[in-house]
Amino acid sequence: MADTVTTSPPVKAGAEQFRKNGFARDAKLPSAAQLDLNTFDISDPEYWRQEAYWPYFARLRKEAPVHWCPDSPYGPYWSVTRYQDIMTIDTTHGIFSSEGGITIADQDADFRLPMFIAMDPPKHDLQRKTVQSIVGPENLKSFEGLIRSRTATLFDELPVDEPFDWVDKVSIELTTMMLATLFDFPFEDRRKLTRWSDVATGRNNPDVVQSEEQWRAELLECLGYFTRLWNERVNAPPRGDLVSMLAHGEHTRNMSPQEYLGNLILLIVGGNDTTRNSMTGGVYAMHKWPDQLAKLKANPSLLPSAVSEIIRWQTPLAHMRRTALQDYEIGGKTIRQGEKVLMWYASGNRDEENYTKPNDLWIERPMVRRHLSFGFGIHRCVGNRLAELQLLVLWEEILKRFEKIEVLAEPERTPSSFVKGYMRMPVRVTPK
Ligand code: HEM
Fold this sequence. Notes:
Layout: H1 9-21, H2 45-49, H3 53-63, E1 66-69, E2 77-80, H4 83-90, E3 96-97, H5 123-132, H6 137-156, E4 164-165, H7 166-183, H8 191-201, H9 212-234, H10 242-248, H11 257-288, H12 290-298, H13 303-314, E5 319-324, E6 328-330, E7 333-335, E8 340-344, H14 345-348, H15 384-401, E9 402-407, E10 412-413, E11 422-424, E12 426-431
Parallel strand pairs: 2-8
Antiparallel strand pairs: 1-2, 3-5, 4-12, 5-8, 6-7, 9-12, 10-11
Helix pairs in contact: 6-7, 6-15, 7-11, 8-9, 8-11, 9-10, 9-11, 11-12, 11-13, 11-15, 13-15
């Protein structure tokens, strides 16, 4: 799930090339109309940091919905940008494999991190089954009270009528607490989980890691910490936390350390960055569409629909990648065996062929749960119901206690074509 966990030597060169040769920070980007579609590469992080990609995706959907980029720091790749085509690829796992990696980057030959999101059946299914009951209906029921009391306590302690960073104080804190519960991770050390999540996905972000060595060293520190937890739990009776489930699971108990680390990173990033960025994105979207917030306040029964719409509108993971196992025709193009295919959920969720008012937040949107943000097919997000629950409780508690949440400046965005999110967002809250 981490975009950089899956990198190979050419990609390592790619990461460095981005630091040196990509668009410079704040560069003036070419207009969508000027683009040469023969060479266009949407993966440059600067498009993402500046949130400049919308008109480029609109042009791709219109003129080249199955688009070949012949050269990028990650090698050549296909971009699939229409809703229906993405759905087709995502549900054709027999041809579009996850085994080569699920982000634009490939695996590092000398630092492989196998994880079940980047596996095909049968191993994928067996490992997924090992952990999925952590977010089963029974657990969700018992988590709800905990999520609510933590959210309420956190809100009671927020600065009132003075600026603070919503990302750090609310979104990161709430998702990190949840993650600590899922792993039964020492609570006082929980910010380590936030750091490892940021490191795992931030290999190309100089604000997060400064070198390849640092990136690997911090991930190995994560492995060291979790190995201590594994050793504690493997010798105790099985319990309901993720580490115990992995340590006792028939299909996970003999994992190599690299595979343990890979699956940890999957679960850390899966449970962290995505929900975190939906928590920020929702507040930002309601600020941009105050009429929708007013509608929600007037009719709180719209909350479940609003939550799904926030997740569609935000699309916290911009793409998932597959590798073709055989030649395949789609959109008048032939994808050849071995080629990389990027399903751009960020684009499919804004496809004008599939959605009315695709760019707007519209909390009464028909068929609102049929967005692409959780994927479809055998890899559809394990944690989708938990993420929705966390967001539902967040908004119930917001509506209960705040008169308004003002967004004081444009948020800073992550420079990543994978994790589509926010670094910081200054806000001021006014209690009722
Ligand atoms: C709004 C929040 C979330 C979003 C947008 C999201 C998105 C995704 C996406 C796009 C996939 C891949 C789907 C595909 O390839 O078809 C995925 C898989 C996954 N997610 Fe999430 N996720 C979220 C929350 C969570 C949470 C809270 C957890 C953990 C409890 C989690 C754990 C996972 C896991 C383990 C997988 C791998 C599933 C598999 O390969 O079978 N996610 N998620």
